[in-house]
Description:
The chain has a single domain (13-178), classed as Alpha-Beta Complex (Peptide Deformylase). It has helices at residues 27-42, 123-135, 141-144, and strands at 47-49, 59-64, 67-80, 83-89, 92-101, 104-110, 116-122, 152-153. Helices cover 18% and strands 31% of the residues. The strands form two sheets. The chain has a five-stranded antiparallel beta sheet with strand order 1-2-3-6-7, with helices on both faces. A three-stranded antiparallel beta sheet has the order 4-5-8. The protein is an alpha+beta fold. A hairpin with a 5-residue loop joins strand 6 (104-110) and strand 7. It binds nickel (II) ion (NI). Nickel (II) ion is lined by residues 89-91, 131, 135, 175-176. Nickel (II) ion binds next to helix 2.
Amino acid sequence: MAVRPIVTNPDSPDVRGRAKRVSRIDDTIRTILDDMVDTMRVAPGVGLAAPQIGIPLRMIVVEYEGQLFHVINPELSKLTGAETDEEGCLSVPNWQGPVTRATSLLVKGRDRVGREFRLNAEGWLARIFQHECDHLDGTLFVDRVTDRAALHWIDPDEAVDDGGGGKRRRKQGSGDAAPAPIQ
Ligand code: NI
């Protein structure tokens, strides 16, 4: 288990390429997933994709409202609804902007031991999965903002703790960045 450096340059080829499918789920893959979870928690964030730590493989981790998901080769289907809300990204530090996403979807893939993974996600959780899966194709939320002029800088010094006794909750919008104001 280790915290790895997050790619924080949105122009880096690391976060702009198309990640490859994982062909074999073994201990090496599980170590990367564990490191992704450590890295996400320290950031802190609610999701992380492998390319964000420089690993071009189709793997994401998501932690939201006490539930932790590791998904290998995730695929999204049954996307319905549309809602616009603010997102941020650990690889685009301190920027935030409105993105329209589906409000309900099905996530399919494999879990950390290779079993089939299926999850119906709604609302903010559905948004996080869409944001993280975008990373696997080199797409960042800034590519999807409804209005580039609405992208705005969040001063990290003005970020306040959520005051929730350590329980994370969303105060402003975010993608994989912290639910409290963007890191
Ligand atoms: Ni992101």
